[in-house]
C-alpha cells in the first residue's frame, strides 16, 4: 500500500512542500480500499474520463459559516468543465455544518470532520468530491508560512478559508476571488493527478525540487507561485492557468 509519504508535497500550497512526513495521518485502518479512502491522485482517471463516471458531484461543506465568494465557486466549475469529460454535467452542492473545534485544525481533525459531515459519495455513474472549508488555520502555520489548502485523499480537499480571507482582505493583497480560485483550482489539480501523481507525465515537467508540482514558471501547478511564503503571492493579479504540458498530461489520461 502506498503510504501518504508525499502528503506534504502535494498538500501544502504554501509551506515547505517537501520532505517531512510528520503530518502524514490519513493512512490508517480506514484506508482499506473504500472508494473515497484512497490516496491523492488515485481517482485522477475516474475524474477525467467519462467511461466509469459521466457526472461529477462536488460537495462544498462550509464549517461555521466559512464560505467562498460565489464567483470563486463559478470559476472552479468552469475550470473543471474545461478539463473533465463529464457529459452528464458537474453539479455543485453546498451545505453548512457547525463544529466546535479548538484554535486550529490538524489533518486528523480535518479527516474526522469530513467523516462526520460528508454526505456525497460516488454511486452509479456519479463520482463525488468533498471540499471542506474550515474556519480555523492549519496547526502547522507559523507567521507568513501558512497552509491554504490540502488535497489529502483521492476525493477530499480541505480549504483553510479563514487564512485565505486573512491574506486577501486589504490593499497590497490579491483579490479574494483570485486567491480563492488559485487555491481551489490548484488543489483540484492534484486530485486530477498533477503533477505525476496518478496522471502520467507526457513530457518531463515535474519540478525536481518540489515533487508533484510543475517546473513551468506561471503554471497553476508551479510550486513557486505559492512557494515558501505567502508574501510571494501577494502581488498576484490574475488566476494562474495550467500550462500546455499539464494540459497534455490530463488529455492523455482521458481529460480534455
Ligand atoms: Zn500543490
Ligand atoms: Zn504545468
In words, what does this structure look like?
It is built from 8 helices and 5 strands, in the order H-H-E-H-E-H-E-E-E-H-H-H-H. By secondary structure, it is α/β, with parallel strands linked by helices. It has a single domain (7-19, 39-252), classed as Collagenase (Catalytic Domain). Strands 2-1-3-5-4 form a 5-stranded mixed β-sheet, with helices on both faces. Helix 3 runs parallel beside helix 6 (176-191). It is globular and about 40 Å long. It binds zinc ion (2 copies).
Summarize the structure.
With 256 residues, the protein is α/β, with parallel strands linked by helices. The chain has helices at residues 7-11, 44-48, 70-83, 107-117, 161-166, 176-191, 223-226, 244-252; strands at residues 55-63, 90-97, 126-134, 149-153, 156-160.
Average pLDDT, to the nearest integer? 86
Largest sheet: 5 strands, mixed
If you consult CATH, what is the topology?
Answer: Collagenase (Catalytic Domain)
Distance between the termini: 30 Å
Shape: globular
Number of domains: 1
Task: Summarize the helices and strands and which ones pair or pack.
Blueprint: H1 7-11, H2 44-48, E1 55-63, H3 70-83, E2 90-97, H4 107-117, E3 126-134, E4 149-153, E5 156-160, H5 161-166, H6 176-191, H7 223-226, H8 244-252
Parallel strand pairs: 1-2, 1-3, 3-5
Antiparallel strand pairs: 4-5
The structure holds zinc ion (2 copies).
One zinc ion is lined by residues 10, 13, 186, 190, 213.
Name some characteristics of this structure.
single chain, 256 residues, alpha/beta, Collagenase (Catalytic Domain), 5-stranded mixed beta sheet, 8 helices, 27% helix, globular, disordered N terminus, binds zinc ion
